[in-house]
Structures are given as structure tokens and as C-alpha cells.
Amino acid sequence: MRADAETIGNSGLRFWSTRYGDSPVIGTAIHDGHDVRGDVAGLMALSDGERLREEDPFTAEMVSGLCNQIIVHRSRFEIDLNRQSDKAIYLDPDQAWGLNVWREQPSDTALGKSLNFHQDYYAMLEQTLRNMEKRHGAFVVLDVHSYNHRRAGPDGPATPQDKAPDVNIGTSSMDRERWGDIIDVVIEHFREVEVNGRPLDVRENVAFQGKGEQTRFVHERFPENGCAVAIEFKKIFMDEWTGEPDQLVIDQRRDAITSLEQVLTDVLRRRQ
Fold it and tell me: Which residues pair with residue 13 across a beta bridge?
């Protein structure tokens, strides 16, 4: 029996959506959101397109086939849930790829509301994972993100392939010896997926090392039973400058993540 929960109200009021059921695997898309709270939206210097370029659109769709999922609707430009709270609001361009996020800095009251959102999210996440631990023992969090590889502009050169794998698996905050079988299975699973007639280039800790706050939080709070895998998909599933999706590639990513659930479930069961 699966329960669906979502904040009631229009899209601008939603915090996150959750689905919870009988599986030891959960997928998150914490940078998929584009909504911004009304009291700070008018203070932003960035256009919708500029924000979208650094968000992770379509990652919610990629985890949509999983039994358990958390989808965040608020933009990382309001507050970045994948950074520690004292660095989660981009007040300096150095925190945001050189972008000047604010034309007017939010008040302390507004910043406090954003920080409360960060705190509430991690309280919800911990309770959700406590429930999974109670039901299943060990569990896996698939922390799904995406990343840009055409920062030189829409007509500029892409980041060289040796520095930008199609799928980057980040593992730096985990006990690699304890969870190596999980990581090996994830990497091999995605390598079986093809794009334009070739296998996906899947590597570990190349473009990113999995140093985000969410994976760190999971490994700190659940050192025995929680394995959080940061999955960064290079934005070959969309045009990162126009936002135009390649639905076929998005569907391939979704199907790969959906089928990974049973693979990981089997690995966890063999570990018991």
C-alpha cells in the first residue's frame, strides 16, 4: 500500500512531493524545482532561463518510476538543499557559478524562512529514512542530479569527454569498502544503457565527487544502514541553453533508474 503526500495549494506554495512504499530504494530530485517564494522572487536578478540553466530539470521524471521518491519543487536559487545551511543561500557570485543572483539581498526575515525550509527538509528526510531502516534494515538513496557541459555558450565547445562522463557517480562521503558492491552494481547497470548507439560513459568521482550535503547527511545519520549514491547525468538529454528536452533520452534514463530498483533490492537482500 503506497501513500502519496503533497503540499496542498498552487505550485508556488509546494515544498516537495513524496511517495512511499515497500522498497529499500528511494530516489530524490532535490534540484528539479523551479518555484521561488513570492517574497524573494522580486528580489532576484536572474531571469527564469538563467535559473533553469543551473537547475536540474527532468530529474523528477527520471525517478518517477521508483516506488519511493522525493521531488523538491523549490528552486536551488531560493535555497540549495545540497549545501550545508550556512552556505545554502547564494549571496555571493562565487557560490553560484559567477552569477549575480540578487539585485537586492533578502531581509533577515526572508533568509530565515529559507533556512527553515532547509531544516524542515532534512527533518522530513531523516524521518522517511528512519521508517525505511525500520522496515528494511539497509537502504539505498539515489540522489539524482544533472550537470552542464556547454558552459562556453550554445555554440561554444563542450567540456571534453575525459572530464565530463555521461554519468558521474559520486561516492566521496561514503564508506566505499562497506558499500562497494552497491556502487559496482550501479556503475555496471548504467553502462548497459546505450546513447546514440554507444554505451554510456559511466565513471566515478570525475566531474563531481559526491560531496553534497544530502549524501553526507545520510552517511552521517545512518552509518550502518544508509548508502547514498550521488548520480550526475550530463545534460545530453536536453539543450542546456534553451531548456528543450530530448524526451527519448529522458525516458531511457527513467527506465534505467526504474529497473535499477530491483537490482539494488536483490543486492541488499543478499547482504542480510
Answer: none
Structural domain boundaries in the chain: 3-271
Neighbours of 111 (CB within 10 A): 15
Q: Average pLDDT, whole number, for the chain? A: 93
pLDDT at 2 over 50: no
Q: How confident is the model at residue 7 (pLDDT cuts 50, 70, 90)?
A: very low
Judge if pTM exceeds 0.90. Answer: yes
| DSSP states along 125-167 | HHHHHHHHHHHHSSEEEEEEEEE-S-TT-TTSPPPPGGGS-SE
d(CA 14, CA 37): 10
Considering only the top CATH level, what class is 3-271?
A: alpha beta
Amino acid in position 208:
F
Give the separation between CA 222 and CA 169, rounded to whole angstroms. Answer: 20
